[in-house]
Amino acid sequence: MEKPAGGVQSVERALSLLEHLAAQDEGMRLSDLAHAAGLTVSTTHRLLTTLEQRGFVHADAGSRRWHVGRSAFAVGAAFIRQRNFVAPALPYLRRLRDATRETANLGIIEDGEVITLTQVESREITRAISPPGGRVPVLYSGMGKAILATWDDRAIEAFLGTYHFQRKTPHSLTAPAAARREIALIRERGYAVDDEEFVLGLRCVAAVVLGPQGEATCALSVSGLAVRMTPSRVAEAGRAVLGLAGEFSGWLSGRP
Q1: Are residues 102 and 229 in contact, defined by beta-carbon separation less than 8 angstroms?
Q2: Would 99 disulfide with which of 37, 44, 46, 240, CB 3.0-4.6 Å?
Q3: In the chain, which stretches have pLDDT less than 70?
Q4: Beta-strand relationship, 192-195 and 135-137
């Protein structure tokens, strides 16, 4: 791995290891982690040993797999604490999950992507889950499009002028004109839909949550398998998520 311009190589490498471990709930063996990060086994072990001393990773003696440690969780939890709407959102997410029987999510836009901050999983045996911490480009996300639609037209045009349109699936938005039509539709009906635009077989319905000044604070969404999220169920989910996002907006604004 080459040293990034303006960066510290050892720090970049250590953070890369943490990112790879965070993506694997079952942990990773040393050799697999080294291969994924593009590092030698010896360098990987040296970095992991240092991270382990600070509690950012730990090794399971039985499986010989490395996992994210408690210190990494503490740092990540600080990010959540700074968003003081996350904990209050949970009752609304549970109600959304119960109303739709699908996974309910809370997300924000950061650096041109949507980050899922927390979620309440569906009780269905097969369910659609993008884990907390996951990032999705704005225009491939129901939550991203719901937030984007609240921006003024000048800000939207500036965003579209720098956005990298790519075809993730046959349903993806691939041009500014298509994005503008989608935004107009979202403004008209009040909620946004990700219709298998990022992952085939997955649909998501989202609505924006407004803060005290009427600004887009975050978004609520419900995501489910496309075979269950039929057009009629998408409409039902849209009404549910729009209603609960409105209630949560009222709570944040002190106007329940």
Answers
A1: yes
A2: 240
A3: 1-7, 73-83, 125-130, 254-256
A4: unpaired
242 neighbors 236 (Cβ within 8 angstroms):
no
Q: How far apart are CA 156 and CA 150, in angstroms?
A: 9
State pLDDT tens for residues 222-233.
Answer: 999 999 999 999
Cα(201)–Cα(80) distance, rounded to whole angstroms? Answer: 30
Separation of first and last alpha carbons in the chain: 53
- 27 close to 66: Cβ distance less than 8 angstroms: yes
| Ordered structural domains, the chain, with CATH | 9-74 (1.10.10.10), 84-253 (3.30.450.40)
pTM for this one? Answer: 0.68
Contacts of 213 (CB under 8 A, 6+ apart): none
Joined tokens for residue 31: 């050799």
